[in-house]
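Example record

Each entry pairs one chain with its bound ligand, flavin-adenine dinucleotide.
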Amino acid sequence: MEFLRPATWGEALAAKAEHPSALPIAGGTDVMVELNFDVHRPSAILDLNRVAELAEWSQDGGVVRLGAAVPYARIIAELSGPLPGLALASRTVGSPQIRNRGSVGGNLGAASPAGDAHPALLAAGRDVCVEAASVRGTRLIPIDDFYTGVKRNSLAADELIRAVRVPVADGPQQFSKIGTRNAMVIAVCAFGFALHPGSGTVGTGIGSAAPTPRRAVEAEEYLRGVLAERGLWESGEALGTEVVQRFGELVKAAASPIDDVRGTAEYRRHALAVLARRTLAWTWNDYGKQIRSAA
Ligand SMILES: Cc1cc2nc3c(=O)[nH]c(=O)nc-3n(C[C@H](O)[C@H](O)[C@H](O)COP(=O)(O)OP(=O)(O)OC[C@H]3O[C@@H](n4cnc5c(N)ncnc54)[C@H](O)[C@@H]3O)c2cc1C
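Structure tokens for the complex follow.
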């Protein structure tokens, strides 16, 4: 097995162009497990750890450009303000060791339906995009087009993830996950939710309950309509049980889970409705407080 160790981003792209079947490795928290269990036997490994810019983030106006290899621990420590949903999701990943190594770029590369970054990225809005690069150039892949199947994504063979671009939150965001224990467990199901008062929209993301991470489109549309028609963005008044209940049901209906060792499809649907109701109640409560304190 060849071991490629580029020192710069340019060298990394050139190496990927020359060896399209080379398996990139960032934190290695997915890759090393799969190598150890002989899931993969790639002809080459492309180690990205010397490429400094992958471990940097920057903020330009209303958008955070998060380098693919920035570890979860730093997202929690440095980005809870601008990216609260992603920071909350990051807190639930693995253990301190995994959070020190694992990255959003790796989560996107693996594209597991159970990856915790995905519901938060979907909920953060349709402007979230993955910056994919190759020697041919750079393209921005909207997050809604990124996940193409179980553990599959829309990267071409010669492309690497440079960064993910996420709009700075303009309202409260939440992430909630169910596992069979508190830590070091793959989610039975997960849900990300975000209020976007600037655009009058809401964002959702469902994890571990469909072949790919996905949003609950009808739930988003329903809530957007209710909030606009009832003037709730302006008043911040309580939503009422019926609205919260209906939102939960629509999120449940958007899932298409399977039965597996971690939970039944029926349990996942039920749990998602609960997570959706809770995260909506938490975020709306926070939003209402903001409106009242500003009045
Ligand atoms: C004990 C344990 C607990 C875990 N718990 C969780 C959890 O709670 N939640 C969760 O979501 N995940 C969990 N994981 C999985 C893993 O930690 C995450 O998926 C993490 O985000 C992977 O990031 P990484 O940098 O380690 O990726 P790597 O293992 O380095 O790579 C993962 C995949 O992405 C590809 N890749 C990496 N970087 C790039 C790039 N720049 N461009 C293109 N492709 C790239 C790799 O080729 C590989 O296919 C756990 C893993 C372990 C071992």
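The mean pLDDT is 96.
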